Amino acid sequence: MRRRDCVLVVDFGAQYAQLIARRIRDAKVYSEIVAPSDLKRRIAAGGVIGLVLSGGPKSVYANDAPRIDLTELVGGVPMLGICYGAQLIADQLGGEVRRTGVAEFGRTMLRSVSGSVLLGELPEENIVWMSHNDVITAPPGNAVVTGSTDASPVAAFEDLRNEVYGVQFHPEVVHTERGDEILKRFLFEVCGASPSYTTVSVIDAAVEEIRARVGDERVLCGLSGGVDSAVAAALVHKAVGDKLVCVFVDHGLLRKGEAEAVVRTFRERMGMNLVEVKAADKFLQRLKGVTDPEEKRKAIGETFIRVFEEVARAGLGPDSAQPRLRVSHEREPASQQASLSKGELKEVPRFLVQGTLYPDIVESGTSQSATIKSHHNVGGLPETMDFELIEPLRNLFKDEVRRIGEELGLSEEIVWRQPFPGPGLAVRIIGEVSPERLEILREADAIVLEEIKRAGLYKELWQSFAVLPAIKSVGVMGDERTYAYPVIVRAVKSEDAMTADWARLPYEVLERIATRIINEVEGVNRVAYDISSKPPATIEWE
Q1: Which tens digits make up the pLDDT trace of 530-539?
Q2: Which of 84, 181, 283, 318 is least enclosed, having the fewest CB within 10 Å?
């Protein structure tokens, strides 16, 4: 994919690295995140107009701290160090970093000097967000100090001749007042970037790349009905047309009425080639006895791929205007199951499309970041499979995906649907998955969504759903003792799922949800509300 302007974010292990890239893209400048070990190769590939060195959890003096040789880069491309990145610049280019015994965390008053390229338009005093133990006590050789705090004598520095800049604080977070202005001045005043990264440019580049890779071959798409897979399918459909066959696996772990809605939307309304695979029995059998969340995800991911392989081997001929096979793993009369003779097997698709997003990759573990949980689209896949993956959304954040979906003409209902995990309700049941627990959770979850929409809160929330722990507690209904499940209600606000805050739902909404679940869902006698933020919790319970 050719991109004229690209600013690389060198990831030293901070979760904020993704937020930096997102802020740069918000300014309509394309940004990629690279590991330190991959930086030289990516610069050599061309198109790089600037570097941002991210923060990180290590001290520059630690033996296992991630490093790059900055002396080879100075003067070649503009560079901005943030937190650890600024300390690395100071440490390698003649400055000084040491542990003074005074750390800075949270909101801090920054005092800046006039004439600064990055801070020149800011007030002399400005609130910034700090998160560090080590302190830069002397700037690198040719740099001048442009900002300081009570604990950090060198909170910002600039070397105009070599185009090297550093800030000890985090301009990418919303807690830093006018942080976006600082980043934009680096992008446009220092790097000379042009604001050409738009939704249309992303679509055009993705279509070009897909066509070049796929050629005339058949492509399968794992369609769940969620935002990510829907937009991925629409992108690939724009690129290859009827060469795309969408496979919708009804694994029995979906929300209430969702399977029917997916078929109705994509086959009937959008006219896509859609193979519906009913495989609830197969997935439930594979999940029997499984309680560990990582094992659940991997079991579901592997089963998904095996089902796709089975569909592909069953035959999707290049002359088929519509798929002729309905694969079923459920117990249906033989007369209701379509089949293909050996002579009709014309082509086994080589490519599989998935709606993987960048946060999925981050949480599944990268070379610099820890594995938080294996996402279905990433860590849940088996090591061996018959397909090559096409992931057109792999480097995008959710808000970017929604904008692309709107540009491609997808309905508001699809584009603004709340995220739903690939493993479905299986990771919202804490414990073993069973038909009984699925039915309880499905009904409770439907009530949560109905009441959230009724209150006009659906689009304000990142996610809202029910969780079913596989435990029971004592209750009383009427004059009888009950021993039934609790349901946990979860609702959060977020921009990109990297961080999230619990939603302050009105008491009357919570009351309606709790009352309806207890009265209408058999097997539940208690409802609780989760008020944990991310971090330390994750949005999903598993």
Answers
A1: 999 998 899 9
A2: 318
